[in-house]
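Quick log. Single chain, no ligands specified.
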Amino acid sequence: SEEEHPLRLPPGEPIPEALRRLKEHYMAATVAWKKYDQLFATLFPSGFVGAATADQTTSDDSKQLGWCAFLVAKCLVFGASGGGNVLDVYHLLVCVIELLLSHLPLDARGGAIWQSLGALVPKEHYPMPAPARAALHAELKADPDRIYKLDSAVAKVSADLRATLGLQQAAGGPSSAPGLLRDAASLRKAREAVDARYAKLVVETKQPLDDRALSSIASLPSASAAGGAMPRGVTSPCRSSSAACARSGNAVLMTPLRDPNPPSSPAHSHLMATPMSGQLECVGWLRAAVRGVPAEEASEALAGYFAHCSASPAEAIEQRLDGLCDKLRAAAGEYEAEEIDEQCVLGRRLYHKMLLAFLESEERRLQHGHFVETLLSQGIFHSSLFACCMECVFASYCMQSSVFPQIMHTLDLSPFDLYKVIDPFVKHEPSLPQYLRVHFREVEVKILEHMAWALESPLHAQLREYDALLASPEAAGGESRAATALEQFLKKVKYLAASRVNDLCLRLLLRKELVAQIWECIKVVVEGPARHLMRGRHLDQIIMCTIYGVCKVNKRQDEAPKTFRDIIEQYKRQDKAAAKVFREVRMGDAGEPPQDIIAFYNKIFIPAMKDHLLRILDASRKQQRSPCSTLQSTAESEIRPPSGVLASPQRVLGDRDVFVSHPRTPVAAMTPRTRTLYAFGDSPSGGLLRINHQLASQPRDGSDAANALRALSTTPSHGAASAAMPAPAAVPAPVERKRSHEGGMSKKQLQRRLADDGAAIPVDRSSSHGSSSG
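-> predicted structure:
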């Protein structure tokens, strides 16, 4: 019987352990079915019978029998855990496939795999002979060591299948099941018997899910969809342009106004294959990279660098590694404790390899070896480097309870200390798999956007020292390595902010002069004058407040105002957006409970940024009146995409919501969301008539639709934009809304608050939102 347990998670509450395990089980089972579905078509083209007797029924029965046999094996081997680790589940699947292949009738061995296996596989004999087994493991990219560890478990599975089907053990070995795959007539009975056995095991082993349901799904989401691809249905203009890039085969997916390959860009996702193949590639790389590297002592090359020190640091380094490994063992989860020792050995070997690479690189840079003792005496450097090595191991083996950010807490590292090692670590290992490169890029983005700005982070003290150094007369005498690292950190934060500002402003269809002002305000926060706003907060919180504040001071009578509701709605469509970012914002005091982003804007952001907003607005207007505008051009040069990138929609009339976009090839399906869109050759003709009627109904200074179309490939003049802007500068007023309690907002309360904010200034929905039909 099935039971339904409704579960409501309050915002900010951690996911319960049972729900996390359920998610891992479902993901592992889904990946296993997807892989089995692909391999079955390749390895068993006629099912489990010869091609002469094969038909659709026998093929379906064969496929279901193999899947149910794997599910039985999963219950027997992993028990109640259900095999949450994707790698463990996959290697068990490889074992079951080997069992099925070895029992395949001779007339059914027609797949391409048999060209590499040859005639070395006797009938109904498991395991296969060593040469054939090695060829199969290479074909399926399986780790032989993990397969060998499962051999005893497969013997248990074979015994269970023999008992279920009433088979007798023969000379093929304890893991053989003679008669498992005999003929078409017996397939249906075998499938029903194994299916019933699995149904019984689901109850006995308390499985969280019945994985037989996966086989009834015609098509599962692909790897790209599982990794954050957009669902089918209505898409925004910028999303449809990305889809057009994907269909046209461009090397890099970009939304308009986005720089090439920002740290958080989904453009890198197309480089990865499925999560399974990515992890298998990582495991293979890891074992190849540390082959021959000692785990308990330094290599000869590393010992040569130790000789440069007044006292050899070898013993201190190994003692430090012992202590770090002990911490990892103590923090290992229930289902990972058995493998932590082997993974610590891999991590230590990789540490010795990467430490040598760091020292060799530094020696090439400095052209001497006097730096060795100073570098090797820094305990934080060693701990951070070992953390990066263990992160490679944990990510490769899908150790969810130990990967970032848990590894920082386990090894007592700050995010900023770990950040300083990530970039050189990736650069010093050119053969690092793309799966791990993307993983470290995501780790770096999390550190840049909020983790490094935590209240207890050492970054704040170092930035104060850095600011004091720049303000002193001696600042021109040279910069230390620490100052260089801080500058590089701030540069990456600005780069990340630029990509998100561009993406969000594009979704909101803001004017270029507004984007320039927003960027100037972001630089005020990151570069120092208002950097305290980042303390204990998220970069996206500052970006959303800045957008609202700039739109507020530039408010015009002829356009709908941008409310926090609009900004949050578009923010939620960004990659990796989280509701907690705008629901829970740290206020002024560490002891004060977090509140929503509107309260933060009114109480903290505006008092700190009011003067900067008005100064930037005044500078923008002065520059727009001058013949040579530098403020907007400077901002565009910093965050503008290269010429080869698809251009964004351009506003061709300053007083109406009319945009002209460059054509895209092939034409992407355009769905209006916040503006009326028309694609020549794609949209209905009535859309163009409505646009012409709108342009003709309210002429302005002699401009008409012909002028708009002539501006297709030109930038609107600064004079026109300036003339349309109001002359007096208004102080950005706080958002008008009712006072509430000081604690964090629930979802419904925040929706009501945003509704009040949106209703503060009337919005003509008919003019600001397009039709819902494409």
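The beta strands are 650-653, 658-660.
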